[in-house]
Amino acid sequence: MTDTAITLTDVTLTYPDGTDRLTALDHVHLHVPGGTIAAITGPSGSGKSSLLAVAATLIRPDSGTVTLATSSGTVDLARLSRREAATVRRDSMGIVFQQPNLIPSLTALEQLEVTAHLGGPKRLSRKETHTRAQQLLEDVGLTPHAHKRPAQLSGGQRQRINIARALMNNPALLVVDEPTSALDSERGTAIIALLTTIAHTHKAATLLVTHDRTHLHHMDAVYTMTDAHLTENSRSTRSHRGDLR
């Protein structure tokens, strides 16, 4: 059985910039095992979002490999066609954006159930889908709000649904982009605590981009992106739950 992990090896990404090319990722290396969470910080425009987009198969790099290991095998994400990449995102990834983008007419429970109906490596029955959605809402502390619609929930509660929805198909990789940017300090702290717990209990390899440095001591590893280069911070900032070298 293959251990879950995401590995970027010598990844370079450039964008057109007039008659030249702008480098977004410059020979980036990164390895995150399943069950651990790696934070990526850095100034705006440094390449953080590009790194997440490459890991999530939303952009294909110019060169390098992006390897996702799952329970069913290993695949180089950088070599997939658009159709193949869409299938991997659906079956093996969970993506948490800054804004939850929930469907206004659906309850919290239905937000999760509809995700499962879109497909997955193993189609669940209606009963199994309902049971998993209920369990995930319990995991994120929203069981009492299962039948409420987005307008009836706070920003922190909507983000919790966003996280639970991303876990619905049991992803090998969880990609999280600035999950606390629209939240106050107290709700942001609660979301970070939830994400670290989720990464460890659900065994997903988790990439988290954040500008908020107050939560970095909760991470298994912390990286800084500067001018398209990725460097790992001092080991003193991490919790030693995993070796992410």
Textual characterization of the structure:
With 245 residues, this protein is of the alpha/beta class. The protein has one domain: P-loop containing nucleotide triphosphate hydrolases (Rossmann fold, 3-Layer(aba) Sandwich). It has 6 helices and 10 strands. The chain has helices at residues 48-55, 82-92, 108-117, 126-139, 155-166, 185-201, and strands at residues 5-17, 20-33, 37-41, 63-70, 73-76, 93-96, 173-177, 205-209, 221-226, 229-232. The chain has a 6-stranded mixed β-sheet. α3 (108-117) packs across α4 (126-139), α3 runs parallel beside α5 and α4 packs across α5 (155-166). The protein is globular. The model is unreliable at 236-245 (pLDDT under 50).
Offer a quick outline of the entry.
Helices cover 29% and strands 28% of the residues. With 245 residues, it is α/β, with parallel strands linked by helices.
What are the main properties of this structure?
245 residues, alpha/beta, Rossmann fold, 6-stranded mixed beta sheet, 6 helices, 10 strands, disordered C terminus
Helix content: 25-40%
Q: How many helix segments?
A: 6
Which architecture per CATH? Answer: 3-Layer(aba) Sandwich
**CATH superfamily descriptor:** P-loop containing nucleotide triphosphate hydrolases
Residue runs with pLDDT of under 50 for 5 or more positions? 236-245
Oligomeric composition of the shown chains:
single chain
- Rg over CA atoms, rounded to whole Å, is 18 Å
The average pLDDT score comes to 88
Largest sheet: 6 strands, mixed
Helix and strand run: EEEHEEHEHHHEHEEE
Question: Got a strand count?
Answer: 10
For the record, give the distance between the C-alpha atoms at the N and C termini, rounded to a whole number.
Answer: 22 Å
CATH topology: Rossmann fold
